Amino acid sequence: MLHILKKHKFLFSELVKRDFKKKYKGTIMGVGWSVLSPLLTLLIMRLVFTHFFGSSIPHYTIYLFCGNIIFSYFKDSTTQGLEALSANSQIFTRCNVPKYLFLLSKNVESLINFGITVIVLLIFCIIDQITFTWMFVLLIYPIITVFLFNIGLGFILSAMRIFYKDISYLWRVFTLLVMYVSAIFYSTKTYPETIQKLFYLNPVYVYISYFRSIIIDGVIPSVWIHLLMLFYAAVVVAIGLLIYKKFNHKFLYYV
Amino acid sequence: MSVLELEDVSVKYIVGDIKNVGLKETILKKISGKYHKKEFWADRHITFSLEKGDFLGIIGTNGAGKTTLLKAISHIMVPNEGIVRLNGTVSSLIELASGFDSDLTVKENIYLRGAILGYTKEQLTSSYKDILEFSELAEFEDRPFKQLSSGMKSRLAFAVASYVNPDLLILDEVLSVGDGAFRKKSEAKMKEIINGGATTILVSHLLEQIREMSNKVLWLNKGEQITFGTNVEEICDAYSMFLKNKVIPKNEEEIKLFAQQYREQQNG
Fold this sequence. Notes:
The complex is a heterodimer of chains A (255) and B (268).
Chain A lengths: L1 H6 L1 H16 L7 H23 L5 H28 L1 H4 L7 H28 L12 H24 L3 H14 L12 H6 L4 H15 L5 H25 L3 H4 L1
Helix pairs in contact in A: 2-6, 3-4, 4-6, 4-7, 4-8, 4-10, 6-7, 7-10, 7-11, 10-11
Chain B lengths: L3 E13 L6 H9 L5 E14 L4 E5 L6 H8 L7 E6 L3 E4 L12 H12 L3 H14 L15 H13 L5 E5 L7 H16 L3 E5 L3 H7 L2 E6 L2 E6 L2 H14 L6 H16 L1
Parallel strand pairs in B: 3-7, 3-8, 5-6, 6-7
Antiparallel strand pairs in B: 1-2, 1-4, 8-9
């Protein structure tokens, strides 16, 4: 796959450019939206939820922010990845191009956006007087694993979207569900032990809690958590690749 | 060494309630037994080969499997049986206007479409000026694609496609585009590529074009290969006869006979 990627480097960079330009064309703020949009969400959540949870959770703003940006990245990346194939069907039914490039370019675009929000998060950490330690370097691990996780889901969803167009709506509802079970604005500590453990079945929650653990608690999560994060990413990527391998040449009948 | 070799190639196609449907629709149709999905052979047992510089004309009525065959040759589709052997690069101009993005500018679109067609960055940078000039859109360089007229769009599409210089060029009903002056210009450009040594495959309903340009002809009917050969005039005459009386020749003798009949009719 890598050597094909190298061969199509030019096409890939043009696709990323296209996705970027399309996203921000006609907006006054341009890339500024990537900064402003999570800040606005943060502001709203802060106003709404501080009264309920703010007093019991230290650094509540940062707590919210961590949850928010990772969930937004997950949502943004998968909802866009879902359309990656169908939106480009006019191209791959008429030209011989590797189809996964369309998905990867969307994912790279979302990753860059996410990167910008992470920088904003770090600025907030300074404002909230959180001390930076060497541990912050480890944040690269959840970023890589969540990136792979999103790509894997993108493979699965974009293939399903080709076969059934209403997957987009179902996925939108599903992400809403994910949002409520990812402990974005509340803490799991108020739940009994067994229920707390159930949260680890939700990959998005695991990625979020890694961020919080490093930034707020200053604690490196256990090896098991690291393995669990990798496991989730590997499983969806594997399923996604299998689906692509099986249906790669069938997609064009369905669009 | 042949540029292209097809050995007993068969390609399936699927039709039915599968395009752009929802999960709900599909389930409901399956329950009520109305679900309809059919596989058929769009191309069956196609065998031929092309040498460097050959010009192949493909003829056949609608639904003969011409476009599907072109897609199999350019690796957009994968044959279910048989082998497609291709030595070198291929560029297929199947529906020229695909891959353009209406929100991007002309310049951005030339790069995007070029990359899709398989240009390298260096190739495109060096032929960018020529492409722009050829399409006569120099003053529209920074305009969004959607602001162009449809004539301008097809000019641009043609210009980007015509600077690829592939070993095998595949043309689906496109030899020239645009209005009077540009039509001549694009046809001349196409001939320049063809005469430059590229191997070419042309699908066309204009028999005159095939007669004039091809040195080999492939006749398809409902996915079956009726004949393939260098006797271009004969095959075209037989095909003209078929268009009149709708009878398919069963073997080479019948093709000769049909061609004979056609010529007699023309002269008499």
